[in-house]
Design a protein that fits this description.
The complex is a heterodimer of chains A (about 375) and B (about 270).
Chain A: E1 4-9, H1 10-21, E2 23-28, H2 35-44, E3 51-54, H3 58-70, E4 74-79, H4 81-97, E5 101-109, E6 115-119, H5 124-129, E7 138-140, H6 145-162, E8 165-171, H7 172-176, E9 178-183, E10 228-230, H8 244-259, H9 262-265, E11 268-271, E12 278-282, H10 286-299, E13 304-309, E14 311-313, H11 317-326, E15 329-334, H12 339-348, E16 354-358, H13 367-376
Parallel strand pairs in A: 2-3, 2-4, 4-5, 5-8, 7-8, 12-13, 12-15, 15-16
Antiparallel strand pairs in A: 1-9, 5-6, 7-14, 11-13
Helix pairs in contact in A: 1-2, 1-6, 3-4, 10-13
Chain B: H1 4-9, H2 25-39, E1 46-50, E2 65-68, H3 74-84, E3 89-95, H4 96-102, H5 104-113, E4 117-123, E5 126-127, E6 133-134, H6 158-165, E7 169-174, H7 178-190, E8 195-200, H8 204-210, H9 216-226, E9 227-229, H10 230-235, H11 238-241, E10 245-252, H12 258-272
Helix pairs in contact in B: 2-7, 4-5, 5-6
Classes of the chains: A alpha/beta (about 375), B alpha/beta (about 270).
Chain lengths: ~375, ~270
């Protein structure tokens, strides 16, 4: 069979990836620079029997998507800066009620209305800490159109597998640039569906896990298992509980869904790190400039490598520490004033000095920006 | 002996409920349970969605699919549930603050879409769960903990707000007139399209005490004495209508329903294949 190629933007590839992963529900609200995700979802979903709805605001967009997931459909919503701020409360709801959901944030310049058509990576810390209270977080950040496709598929898989909201953190550059995408054949990439209880499972409890397991099976509303879902702390029945012991147990389990499965969740890429004496850490579209910087510096005989976290939350700490021990300096390149740098400093401690090549004025970082910064550390 | 409706529809192990003595929410929830029972609905096919507040605790007591969401957002979650699975009979239980303040935007847009959801608004004119702050339906000049000098806001008429926004069924009942409430509830639940039934309710603890409304019985008597059916009111002379509040059916029309219309788009593509 001939390979299927398409020339697509990152936003369009996101929808193609979502459909490949089995998305059947999209709830959202238009916002630059993510709107193409809503538009293509509106176009394509009814063709596969799926549902699209444009809601009255960002909050309703994620609420409807959570509702769709509860009714049994793989669901997604997409937005950008201001919309992401509005969605925060319901992200926490999906986390505590353990509802699989993919939330796309095509980052633009902020804060507030900021620079709506300009790229940024200023929502990195928001992805981790945006909603109130301690809660599990998975966020992934692709660097290209193809990777937007594959990471969207992976985001759906992680959401379904761990029953948690997953944030696909792209940026305006990745969202709007066009590249050739080879659409994988069905079956070529893994597609994971949430575990559901058997129809005749009389003992089903919505939030009970099997011994040694961390993720409860999820019944769809209307499937015959009548149960209660709430954003309050609840026990294994799903009903509210004020017990501090129970809250601790449930929160531990929710956090451990992620913490105990790092091998499955973490993804990263490396470029010329084997003999690197200086390291650049970058992600999303900025990693493209970082890669050019590595090649240019190598041309000058400077041994530089690139570490590129694809999963940014949880942050791939273990490999970063190994590399930190190997190199003399780390330059974090990101389109913000040093957000992931904070996490990297926390992780590497005094193993290597960490400096920032950052920008938050709506311009992309260029290879020259990064090269100049790396040279400061030589 | 346990009431057969309680036995059949309530999650007896979740009782007693959390509501204060004298609260009318139990009356309204009982009416809902009896109406569902009367309609013979399959419990597996009923989903009740709520937001945050006293009334929003109601779904948890019923043995159906129940979803307790975030403040004000019940209709938005319910829209997702209904669109994803139109076979479900979706009911939203909300309060005056939940439905018309923080969730007011969702109320008017759910009404505008005419999606087949029944929204029951337990309107007790106050924020009860947070301890008695004025809501969008607290009458002007009444008191709340955040209106210690008298409320200068003007109240919403929730049933007519929903009707104006496009709800194809809108009605008001009271917690006193239970027989009428059940009739209206049955019509709201079986109506195809968005239906809104506002239930004039009492909050003796937070609204009643703050406004010197007397005992719960007195407050129910107030509902009895001051609400008249809209159809009866039409025939009454002006002087007898003065100062009365209206209950009954305000709007009942047919119009294309949202999930049906969406299904037509899906069917169009299925035919092309």
């Amino acid at each position: 069979m001939a390979k299927k190629f398409k020339l697509l933007s990152g936003n369009e590839a996101c929808v193609e990836g979502a459909l490949y992963a089995g998305m059947k529900f999209y709830g959202g609200y238009p916002i630059t620079p993510s709107t193409e995700i809503a538009e293509r979802s509106a176009l394509e979903l009814p063709k596969v029997g799926g549902k699209f709805i444009q809601m009255e605001d960002e909050i309703a967009g994620i609420a409807a998507a959570i509702g769709g997931s509860i009714a049994g459909l793989k669901s997604m919503t997409a937005t950008s800066g201001p919309g992401m701020s509005l969605k925060q409360e319901n992200i926490g709801y999906a986390a505590i009620a353990e509802i699989p959901l993919v939330i796309v944030n095509v980052q633009r310049g902020g804060p507030s209305t900021g620079l709506p058509t300009a790229p940024a990576q200023g929502d990195v810390m928001q992805a981790m800490w945006g909603t109130h209270g301690d809660h599990p977080v998975i966020a992934v950040s692709p660097m290209s159109v193809t990777e937007t496709f594959t990471e969207t598929v992976r985001a759906f898989n992680l959401a379904e597998k761990y029953r948690t909201p997953v944030i696909l953190l792209t940026d305006e550059v990745v969202g709007h640039m066009r590249e050739k995408l080879e659409i994988p054949e069905p079956g070529e990439l893994e597609v994971y569906d949430r575990l559901r209880p058997d129809a005749d499972d009389k003992d089903y409890l919505a939030y009970r896990v099997e011994e040694g397991d961390l993720v409860p099976k999820m019944a769809a509303f209307g499937s015959g298992h009548r149960y209660h879902i709430t954003g309050l702390f609840h026990d294994e029945t799903g009903f509210p509980s004020n017990s501090t012991e129970n809250a601790e147990f449930m929160l531990d389990r929710m956090m451990n869904k992620i913490a105990h499965n790092l091998d499955d969740i973490l993804a990263y890429d490396e470029f010329m790190t084997e003999d690197a004496e200086h390291l650049i850490i970058s992600y999303g579209s900025t990693a493209r400039a970082a890669k050019s910087a590595v090649m240019a510096l190598r041309g000058e005989g400077i041994k530089v490598g690139l570490f590129r976290p694809i999963t940014i939350w949880p942050y791939p700490a273990e490999r970063t520490i190994e590399l930190a021990k190997q190199v003399k300096s780390i330059t974090v390149a990101e389109m913000n004033l040093g957000q992931l740098k904070l996490e990297i400093e926390r992780v590497v401690k005094s193993e290597a000095p960490v400096q920032l090549s950052g920008k938050a004025n709506g311009e992309v970082l260029t290879p020259n920006d990064i090269i100049a910064k790396v040279k400061e550390a030589l | 002996m346990i009431n057969p409706v309680v036995e059949k529809l309530f999650r007896a192990d979740r009782l007693p409920h959390i509501w204060c003595p004298g609260c009318s929410h139990g009356i309204t929830l009982g009416a809902l349970a009896r109406t569902i029972e009367k309609l013979g609905w399959d419990k597996d096919e009923v989903a009740i969605v709520s937001g945050i507040g006293c009334s929003s605790r109601a779904p948890g007591y019923l043995d159906v699919n129940t979803l307790h969401t975030t403040h004000g957002r019940a209709l938005a979650f319910a829209t997702g549930v209904k669109l994803a699975n139109p076979n479900l009979k979706v009911i939203v239980i909300s309060g005056d603050g939940d439905a018309s303040a923080i969730g007011g935007n969702h109320l008017i847009h759910a009404a505008r879409r005419n999606i087949d959801i029944t929204c029951l608004v337990f309107n007790n004119n106050i924020y009860g769960m947070t301890g008695g702050q004025y809501s969008p339906t607290t009458p002007t000049n009444d008191f709340g903990t955040t209106a210690p000098h008298g409320n200068i806001d003007k109240p919403f008429d929730i049933a007519n707000l929903a009707a104006s926004a496009g709800a194809t069924y809108a009605a008001r009942a009271t917690a006193y007139h239970v027989t009428q409430m059940e009739k209206l509830m049955e019509k709201a639940l079986t109506h195809k399209g968005f239906s809104c039934l506002e239930v004039a309710s009492i909050c003796p603890i937070y609204y009643g005490r703050k406004n010197k409304k007397g005992s719960p019985a007195n407050m129910l008597k107030f509902l009895k004495d001051n609400f008249i059916d809209a159809k009866v009111a039409e025939k009454l002379p002006e002087e007898k209508r003065a100062g009365k509040m209206l209950m009954g059916e305000f709007k009942n029309v047919e119009a294309p329903e949202y999930t049906d219309e969406y299904q037509k788009i899906i069917d169009r593509f299925a035919e092309e294949k």
